[in-house]
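Write out this protein's structure.
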Amino acid sequence: MTLYGIPPAGLRRFMAPESGRDHAHAIADAAHAWWVANRGGSGDRAVAVGTLAGLALMTPRQPDGPDCGLLLIPLEDEGLVDALRAGWNTFRTYDPDLAEAARPLHDWLCAPTENDVRGLSDYARVLVRAGLLEYCSDPSRAESDDILGLMLTRMRTYSERQRTGEFFTPAMAADHVGEIIFAADRKPGDLFLEPAAGTGTLARAAAAALRVYGADPAIFRWWLNDADPLNAACCAVNAQLWRLGRQVTVSCGDALNHPRLLEQAVQRRAERAIAELEKHPVLYPTRTRPPFWPF
């Protein structure tokens, strides 16, 4: 049975590209093509990438988990916004500090404009049809490439990337670096520090290399920093998608020239996030639960 012409999860898994990397590019291409055709270009990138991130966080923790698409596909624009709010509420309960670091991806949900919401349910259906839920629920696929980084790169113009000097590290190159980083013996609790992490693609490669060597990335500490707020926000979500564990720090600032000030700022942010969670357990008022509680 199909809804809006979108097959159920089992068939979506069967139809997905065999390569997780090809799957990630297919999802990003479909999402970007819809955004350009229906929203007129690369603007509103926080809404485009934030919606993708919010749906990714709502996926089951196992590839054969329940089909969240059955609950997401019928939603209209306002209903989808409500589901996204509920999903970010859950992420904040799980890790208030990372949810705060990811705020540039979901802050628009506080008071979305009519333009923010316009066509968002159709955009979500494109993501479901392309297999985003199946991609993110399979750990081996989710860590094969940086889906948020791919989408964010597509949403930035060439001139923007030239002006900021940004360069998205291809997954294949990142994989080689990840293998080199963890080729030597590493002890539990060692710190992986990336001062110019972008959206975290080198951390993805390092985590994948650790799993190849039989180690769990969650037993290590991760500190991912980038000067761009949206990049850092994507790092916070990717830490969850790539199962990096609970010892993850994400920051936004000049980590090379002001490391001590950056460390102090992150500590204060974490303290504020925990205190705010105790005072206000719900980040966004919502009428519904998220389709799935993945954490």
